[in-house]
Amino acid sequence: MVVKNIARILIADDDELLREILKTMLSDFEVIEADSGRRAVILYQMHRPDVVLMDIVMPEMDGIEATKEIIKLDPDAVVIAISAYAPTKGRNMLEAGAKEVISKPIRRNELVEKIKKYIA
């Protein structure tokens, strides 16, 4: 029996509908969902996903702070920011340790291509 190693993706976004859309786009991966930055940090510790898709503006803890916390836990963590605020807040995410920033709306091909770049 061959067991495929399926990449684990953590989606951190307070918009439930967007999480559902992303989960559908990423049906080839194992997906974990967080509805806040604080929850993203907890789930990162528990599951050590291959890639984190991090919204920037969220309750409790924003994506910038959550990214800093995740990078403290794991300097090799792959965080990709996804945000409608990419043009204005994207630099802050990169400074916090995100590998790159994707603007909303997100295209499936672009998203999967970026994820595969980091899990290859």
Give the tags.
120 residues; 46% helix; single chain; 5 strands; alpha/beta; Rossmann fold; 5-stranded parallel beta sheet
Structure report:
The protein is an alpha/beta fold and 120 residues long. It has one domain (8-119): Response regulator (Rossmann fold). It is 46% helix and 19% strand. Strands 2-1-3-4-5 form a five-stranded parallel β-sheet, sandwiched between helices. α2 runs parallel beside α3 (63-73). The longest helix is centred in the last third of the chain and has 12 residues, at 108-119.
In short:
This protein has 120 residues and is an alpha/beta fold.
Ordered list of secondary-structure elements with their pairings:
Blueprint: E1 8-12, H1 16-25, E2 30-34, H2 37-47, E3 51-54, H3 63-73, E4 79-83, H4 86-96, E5 100-103, H5 108-119
Parallel strand pairs: 1-2, 1-3, 3-4, 4-5
Task: Give the rounded overall mean pLDDT.
Answer: 92
The profile of the biggest β sheet is: 5 strands, parallel
Distance separating the two termini: 23 Å
Helicity range: 40-55%
Residues in β-strands, percent: 15-25%
Let me know the CATH homologous superfamily: Response regulator
Instruction: Identify the overall geometry.
Output: globular
Indicate how many domains the architecture comprises: 1
**Care to count the β-strands?**
5
CATH architecture: 3-Layer(aba) Sandwich
For the biggest β-sheet, the strand order reads 2-1-3-4-5
Q: Please work out how many helical segments DSSP would assign.
A: 5
CATH structural fold name: Rossmann fold
- What is the CATH class designation? Alpha Beta
Provide the gyration radius in Å.
Answer: 13 Å
The topology string of helices and strands comes to EHEHEHEHEH
Going by helix content, strand content and strand pairing, the class is alpha/beta
Regions with pLDDT < 50 over 5+ consecutive residues? none
